[in-house]
Amino acid sequence: MDSTTLHEEINSFFESAPPLKDSVKIADKLNQFVQFDSPSSEGKGRRVVCVTSGGTTVPLEQRCVRYIDNFSSGNRGAASTEYFIKAGYKVIFLYRRGTCQPYCRSLPEDPLLECFELADDSDFQVRQSHSEAVKGAIRNNHAAVAGGLLLKIPFTTIFEYLQMLRMIASSMRSLERHAMFYLAAAVSDFYVPWKSMAEHKIQSASGPLDMRLMQVPKMLSVLRTEWTPMAFCISFKLETDSKILLEKANMALKKYKMHSVVANELLTRKEEVTVVTENGNISVLRDKTRPGSDVEDPLIELLVKNHSTYIEDGST
Amino acid sequence: MDSTTLHEEINSFFESAPPLKDSVKIADKLNQFVQFDSPSSEGKGRRVVCVTSGGTTVPLEQRCVRYIDNFSSGNRGAASTEYFIKAGYKVIFLYRRGTCQPYCRSLPEDPLLECFELADDSDFQVRQSHSEAVKGAIRNNHAAVAGGLLLKIPFTTIFEYLQMLRMIASSMRSLERHAMFYLAAAVSDFYVPWKSMAEHKIQSASGPLDMRLMQVPKMLSVLRTEWTPMAFCISFKLETDSKILLEKANMALKKYKMHSVVANELLTRKEEVTVVTENGNISVLRDKTRPGSDVEDPLIELLVKNHSTYIEDGST
User: Fold this and answer.
1) Taking every annotated instance into account, which residue ranges of this chain make up the domain DNA/pantothenate metabolism flavoprotein C-terminal (chains A, B) (predicted)?
2) CB B200 to CB A240 under 8 A?
């Protein structure tokens, strides 16, 4: 596809999108969070990474009752955020509402009802079995947010996600090589243009339902080449079929000019990923000798090292 | 549609569904919960209602990455459960994972991180502003579950939902007129048969995506006439277009032989609903003079009264 057509498609996507609520407030927050740490003239500013997490939804009706969802628990994004903060990064966590949050991965699904019990008629206490997990979640989350290391921005639809990603890219542009994008969200490939969408609930007639979905324009290209041309960019490729995984990851690396593509297979994604780069593939494994360890631990270590090299390359 | 065709469609739906996990465990729980209160020979047993809540998902791929979701917060089902328990009912709460829970409606989205704060380095406490909401949630939930008045069963897909509903109906059959179904869940009208589903992730090729979805067979008919022919059955009709709402609700009442259909419009559903019955329509309004009141309060009051009449009619 030539770049004129891509630009037309992108314009048409954003023009057809419903306007973002609170966009001024979000822009203010972003600028405050990022500008505080603009790289000094020596280029020694704090690094900032935008971690995207969870799946986007595609509304099928304007007054949204039905939508298509890309499943993702958000576990990868939440875990990676913790390791980036540990490595000294500031993190903009762009996450799907309701998905897994940093420092909360070991909590049960419904923490309030499952972690607490009645002490007597008027009071309650944390259950002994969940005491450490609850304390850790509250303490670490508080330290990260109050310490200015973590900014959380929620989205639900593909329209919100891409509009917010564009705003974040714009606010991080001045960080140049200190900026990183770690695009772990499961973004829908297809959408229904807002204007061609049914205004009311689709009626179940007597036959099957036929639907036609349009391709979402490939925003990775414009993120990489126009929105933040200097940022270090990592995208993800998830497949259920291991046979085509590395080939697809390699194609994405070249097509979107990513610095790395993290290839993962649905069934083994918590144990193993492959970091695909121009210089070859590196397999990253979870440390099985340490119970409760994460594959994100060695993964973020590797990416931080690669980011350092990238920053150094720019200063020579 | 004649009933032979419907039965064929229903058989084909259940045969094509992936088998339910833990079905033996769920059946045991259900039987314990229900049998404890079978109506005595005088027909004076406790009433049991099955409240369904939240939207079902329709997987588009067998190894599920993408699916269609019917949006529903689950607020209606959670609120109604509270009022049914208050009215003396035992409630089987069949709910979509992650949706609103009874007694938790006034909590923020992420209760653990938003309701608690650090007291010092090693301890934490509930924030004053959320103290009552948190205490109420833990106390009331504990009282309902420990008191044997509330059994919670989670689902995600349309396949799980309908298989579980059939199990619940089978366990409640012996309660005869003391059983009620309050079907507030937003159930998908369309699905992709499991066997015709793509095994792997659908690849985004170069064009638009065309999809064909089949109609989910109308299980309300068989629930009402075969699974639990004596139970008092309430279904819901949600529309975004008020002009067709009452007409559609009336059609559902007749087609599925419901005892009532609760008609609600997306934008006003928290303020007003219409209970459609054979004997006419009754409009139910939230009591606006009481801050924080629910439309479910007068709604459940009305339905409990109608259920009483239905039980009395059966004993004459």
Assistant:
1) 48-94, 166-285
2) yes
